Structure formats: structure tokens, C-alpha cells
Amino acid sequence: RERALKREREEDELTRLQADARLRRPRDWTGKTYRREDKAFSPDEQKEAESKELARWRKAVLQAIVEADLPLAEDIRLAPLGVDDPSVRRACAGHRWSTLKKRVLDLRPLARFLKAQGHGSFPRHEQDVLAYFGVRQSGKAARGVYATTLAALRFFEEGGEVPRDHRLCTSQALANAALEAAAQRGREAEADGVLLENRQAPPLPLS
User: In the chain, which ranges are continuous DSSP H helix?
Assistant: First the structure.
């Protein structure tokens, strides 16, 4: 019984010390989870915040489609409200804002690479993506980069209404290249004794 009480006191003291440390920590150092706890939202406020995020990332998706000049881009340009017009929201396919955000952010490194090479912001040929994969491999990017890139490519080709027989996301060459690049990174890490889960991909070189 005494041992249990002692353990409870120790746990209470540890909780108090952790709370004190968090309160003394500068705001910029505070983790995202704690910041969310620090500001509690009512259900209505939460709903409003999610609605704003959804509108923000819907717009980002449609802007990316216009910049890439995918088939849906013409409808967006002709829509009365452009990227804010409800008639072109079909590109988002009912996804949550968090999914839209992920797809937009996952596409951006590929878009930056293509722009730096003078190829616009969206791949038109398998070789465009293979060249990007090659650069990421040379930079020892994380294994997941290749799969997330293909997932973003699929999302935008489908949302941008690229005809099925012109979609790069169905390319077996790209699927195989992504698997090989991820496996190769795993072998390199094993040889170096590196735990990939604790490493971040280095910045993408653009030249």
C-alpha cells in the first residue's frame, strides 16, 4: 500500500513539474498539441475553423490545376467566380481539408523542380518524374517521398480531369521506380546503420 501511495505522489509531482515547465517555455517553443490545448474551441468555433481551412485548401488545389494547365483549368477560368466558384469544386472530390493540404504540399517539390528545369509546374512525360526521383535519390530523400509524390500526381490528374490514357499516375515505370528508390534508400540506411524514422529528407537541390 505504501509503495502504491509513493508511486502516486511521484507521478503527481512529475505532472506538476511538467506543467510548470510548459508554462515557463517561450511561446515559440511550445508544441502544436499543447498550443491546441491552450486554446479550447467550442463546437461552433471548431466547425468555423475547419470550414475556413477547407475553403483555403480547395482554392489551393484549384490554383494548382490552373497553373498546371490541366483540362479542368479551362472550366475554372470560365467559371463566374474562378477558383471560388462552386461549379469547379468537383476537383476536390469531397476530400477533407487535411487531405487537400497534403496533396498540395506533396506536389510542390516536384513543381519547383520542373520549373527550375524549364518544364512548367506539372509533369507531361514519365521522364519528368523519373528525373525528379533521380535528384531525390542523390539527395538521400526519405523513402516515403516517392509514394507521396505519385499519390499527389494521381490526385491532381484525376481532379484535373486528365484523360485516363494520358495519366502518368498509371505508369508502371513510375510505380517500379518509386519502389526501387524506396528500397535502395532502405538498403543504404541499413548499411550506414541509420534509423530512417529519426531523419528528415534534406532540402531538394534545384540546380
Answer: 2-24, 32-38, 43-68, 72-78, 97-116, 126-138, 144-159, 172-192
DSSP assignment of 80-119: TTGGG-GGGGGGGTT--HHHHHHHHHHHHHHHHHHHHTTS
Please name the amino acid found at residue 43.
P
pLDDT tens by residue, 101-158: 999 999 999 999 999 999 999 999 999 999 999 999 999 999 999 999 999 999 999 9
- pTM greater than the 0.85 cutoff: no
| Residue in the block written with cell 502504491 | 4
Q: Rounded to an integer, what distance in angstroms lies between the CA atom of residue 169 and that of residue 69?
A: 17
